[in-house]
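Reminder: ligand-aware prediction takes two inputs, not one.
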Amino acid sequence: MVRVCSVHDVPDPGALRVEVPTPSGTVAVAVVRDEDGGLHAISDTCSHQAVSLSEGDVEGCMIECWLHGSAFDLRTGRPSALPAVHPVPVYALAVDGDDVLVDATADIGPAAEAR
Ligand code: FES
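Here is what comes back for the chain with FE2/S2 (inorganic) cluster:
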């Protein structure tokens, strides 16, 4: 896991785009705080078109893509509505003091096996 930001950098609720280094290259990740204060890490790239999910609105435990409105579950990566039909990767996140740590080397979402 690598430090990506401080807990204070993440809007409440809202999202922050970070670039996470991995052995196979840099991964764009959205660190998202849901409306209950929980932190999540998902791919920052919408599965419908290549736009940044961190620019969307957070509602409950979902983040809504600003371009066409598909909302993705922050726990599973699954979209709740069209036009997106494929889930986005979900990454492991931990908090150590004020530091947010993310492991973007593996998709840990429950839908990962289907991809
Ligand atoms: S680009 Fe995200 S729903 Fe279309």
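The mean pLDDT is 95. Residues 68 and 96 are 35 Å apart (CA to CA). We will return to this case in the review session.
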